[in-house]
From TrEMBL:
Keyword Metal-binding applies: no
Start and end residues of each Disease resistance N-terminal domain: 1-77
Keyword Nucleotide-binding listed: yes
Keywords: Leucine-rich repeat, Nucleotide-binding, Plant defense, Repeat
UniProt GO molecular function: nucleotide binding
Family assignment from sequence similarity: Belongs to the disease resistance NB-LRR family.
The protein's name: Disease resistance N-terminal domain-containing protein
Lineage of the species this protein comes from: Eukaryota, Viridiplantae, Streptophyta, Embryophyta, Tracheophyta
InterPro entries, sorted: Rx_N
GO terms classed as biological process: defense response
């Protein structure tokens, strides 16, 4: 998830992010992902998780991988790199 947040920061700094609406959306998205990352890190300190929490953790983790793939593709298609 840290690499995903780093990529979002890169997107924020690019020229197209100068557009106010996009910058706000990227910031909001980054804040949401940071909250998800913090929740996942908090779960890592707990012992045995209940089945529902394990499922939620796995879904959030997979979603972060999917989001990172989408951002990688977007950046590649727009000539950006990390």
């Amino acid at each position: 998830m840290n690499s995903l947040l780093g990529k979002l920061a890169t997107l924020t700094g690019k020229e197209f992010a100068k557009l106010t609406n996009l910058r706000k959306e990227v910031k909001l998205f980054s804040d949401e992902l940071t909250g998800m990352k913090d929740a996942l890190e908090g779960l890592s300190y707990l012992g045995e998780l209940d089945p529902q929490t394990k499922i939620w953790r796995d879904i959030v983790r997979e979603m972060s991988y999917d989001i990172e793939d989408i951002i990688d593709n977007f950046m590649q298609n727009n000539g950006d790199s990390n």
